[in-house]
Write a structure and sequence with these properties.
25 helices; globular; about 650 residues; single chain; Neutral endopeptidase, domain 2; four-stranded mixed β-sheet; alpha/beta; three-stranded mixed β-sheet; Collagenase (Catalytic Domain)
């Protein structure tokens, strides 16, 4: 049994791979498969995520059965009691809006902007949202230290364009009544009037947001500021009161990186423009929105009705047990992950992945060596970056210790805030400490992968190391068309339009010669223009944003190209093996098409076109139109649907 054996029932032989690889591999499946009623998208990734969710459920239910007798602070006690507190629907319904009344009372006592900034700072520490986003990461120009990075925020819709673009008018019309209903559930008599004020605040804040594609410029987004300079940038905001309530000391905010400085200037202006009634209404919805998943069903249903049904087109709320698993993992995810890998990640998978990664790195080295557009000087720096790539496979060497979190079996909102405060304090404690290069930014059970430029690492959690991406016993061609291309994609992020700005140490550094950088940009711009012309097949009236998706498209292009090259390296001197009438290269490309087997509801698809740096799944699969290797494997020619004249094909690596 091979991975492609599983794919075949969903294939459509009437569609030629030369015309539409995605349609050939997935056509019948697309026609017959129904998206589950609690999903807005469904496909290969979703199936693996469902499996991991079921496996995690077994783990947390076992812990719940033993938590009463487990030691306080143990993984069993914490996992079990978190689950118990979430699944006690009767107690949650009885409490209604009571859990948030203390926070609402504190907000009611606020009389000026300084007190409001302090309130928001304290609320952020316990998991709430605020005026802007803040996170801890390595300094882009000094990767041996951590800094706080500040990003634009303050809004409740997915993107600034939702507040102004005519195509989102219906969303705006639904949003304000939703805000009113949420505030009414929380006990406010003037909820409708407050909802209008909330929208007015968010709309003003959105006017200062950078357009999403613009936020991808890592050079423009690096603005190191001292705390004094931060206060000078946005003098209307009470920075000291906010910092004190956040739990920050003098070292924490001594220097910060401001990603969108003009937004903070704008925020400073807006703070002075709007009265306290507007700001308190805005802060009230922050409280209600953050707590809604942990309150009675009326809050849960109203929140889902807007964010699930209206924005994403999902008909049905996910079962409580699924939301419960997600809650436990959001609080003590690595504790669950440690038990997950003990049960579901065989050592053979890690060993096979080591070999795959080694071949992918060698494929990149050979590809860079052969480039005719890159000078030797830049190639040598690229080799140094490749040599220092750090692969992380399966799970971390050391799992996180959550034992200090006070988890109670009978207080869900307390648990949510306690876990958020633990994570907040853990992040702030990084400032001034050595960079922990062993830290993972995904859980072992996650079905995904990432590249982190600040530490020059690629990470492949155990959750994604399963069919159709990977099977230790599978045909190598299928593995290289699945996880091999994913590995290549993540390595490729080190050399995409963002990652190429970082050197082997994780620092922003002009390591390209000007001529090489221009040659790279020419190729990237060709890809931008190509994708600007594409529309999803289900939404022919919409267009892909080539500038927003260029980094991921470069990743897909390079990942698949290098995945194929690594497959050839793995064969050594052996000829391409045929199987089931298909060459190895054909099987590789077919499995690439299979991993993108996905259906999306139109509402979600429209949202993702606006906010997601990834192209729609069928366009990710059909990036093969740029690969000479694909055209050779399937003997394409002019007139075929995926044919591109050789001079129009984009090839970077």
């Amino acid at each position: 049994m091979t991975i492609l054996d599983d794919a075949r029932p969903g294939m459509d032989p009437s569609v030629r791979p030369q015309d539409d690889l995605f349609g050939h591999v997935n056509g019948r499946w697309l026609e017959t498969e129904e998206i589950p009623s609690d999903k807005s998208r469904w496909g290969a990734f979703s199936l693996l995520a469902e499996r991991a969710e079921q496996q995690a459920r077994a783990i947390v239910e076992e812990c719940a059965a033993q938590s009463a007798t487990a030691d306080k602070g143990s993984a069993t006690q914490q996992i079990g009691d978190l689950w118990t507190s979430f699944m006690d629907e009767e107690a949650i319904e009885t409490r209604g809006a009571e859990p948030i009344q203390a926070d609402l009372a504190k907000l009611a006592a606020v009389t000026d902007h300084e007190q409001l900034a302090a309130f928001i700072g304290g609320f952020e520490r316990r998991g709430g949202g605020g005026f802007f986003g803040a996170y801890v990461d390595t300094d882009d120009r000094r990767s041996d230290r951590y800094v706080i990075k500040l990003v634009q925020g303050g809004t409740g819709l997915p993107d600034e364009s939702y507040y102004r673009d005519e195509k989102f008018a219906a969303i705006r019309e639904a949003y304000v009544p939703h805000l009113g209903r949420m505030l009414s559930l929380a006990g406010f008599d003037d909820a409708e009037e407050m909802a209008q004020k909330v929208f007015a605040v968010e709309q003003r804040l959105a006017e200062g947001h950078w357009e999403r594609a613009e936020t991808r410029d890592v050079i423009k987004g690096y603005n190191l500021k001292s705390f004094v300079e931060l206060q000078q940038l946005a003098p209307g905001f009470a920075w000291q009161a906010y910092a004190d309530a956040l739990g920050a000391d003098e070292q924490t905010l001594a220097e910060v990186v401001v990603r969108q400085p003009s937004f903070f200037e704008h925020l400073s202006t807006v703070v002075g423009e709007l009265d306290m009634d507007h700001w308190k209404a805005w802060a009230a919805i922050k409280i209600v929105r953050a707590a809604a998943p942990y309150l009675s069903s009326a809050f849960v249903e109203e929140s889902f009705d807007f964010y699930g049904r209206t924005l994403a087109g999902t008909p049905e709320l996910r079962a409580r047990w699924k939301r419960g698993v997600g809650f436990v993992e959001s609080c003590v995810g690595e504790a669950v992950g440690q038990l997950y890998v003990e049960r579901h990640f065989p050592p053979a998978s890690k060993a096979a992945m080591d070999e795959l990664v080694a071949n992918l790195l060698e494929a990149y080295r050979q590809s860079i060596t052969a480039l005719d557009w890159m000078t030797e000087e830049t190639k040598q720096r690229a080799f140094r970056k490749l040599e220092t790539f750090r692969p992380k496979i399966g799970y971390p060497d050391k799992f996180r210790d959550y034992s200090s979190i006070d988890v109670r079996p009978d207080d869900l909102w307390h648990n949510a805030k306690a876990a958020a405060a633990f994570e907040h304090d853990r992040q702030l404690a990084k400032i001034g400490a050595p960079v922990d290069r062993d830290e993972w930014f995904m859980l072992p059970q996650t079905v995904n992968a990432y590249y982190n430029p600040g530490t020059n690492e690629i990470c492949f959690p155990a959750g994604i190391l399963q069919p159709p991406f990977f099977d230790a016993d599978a045909d190598p061609a299928e593995n290289y068309g699945g996880i091999g291309a994913v590995i290549g994609h993540e390595i490729g992020h080190g050399f995409d339009d963002q990652g190429s700005e970082y050197d082997e140490h994780g620092n922003l550094d002009e390591w390209w010669t000007p001529a090489d950088k221009e040659a790279f940009k020419e190729r990237a711009d060709m890809l931008v223009k190509q994708y600007d012309g594409f529309s999803p097949r289900a939404l022919p009236d919409e267009k892909v944003n080539g500038s927003l998706t260029v980094g991921e498209n470069i990743g897909d292009l390079g990942g698949l190209t290098i995945g194929h090259k690594a497959y050839l390296i793995s064969l050594g001197d052996e000829p391409l093996p045929e199987r089931d009438g298909l060459t190895g290269s054909q099987r590789l490309f077919l499995n690439w098409g299979y991993v993108w087997r996905t259906k999306e509801r139109d509402e979600l698809a429209r949202q993702l076109l606006t906010v997601d740096p990834h192209s729609p799944p069928e366009l990710r699969a059909n990036i093969v139109r740029n690969l000479d290797e694909f055209h050779h494997a399937f003997e394409t020619g002019p007139g075929d649907g995926l044919w591109l004249d050789p001079e129009d094909r984009v090839r970077i690596w």
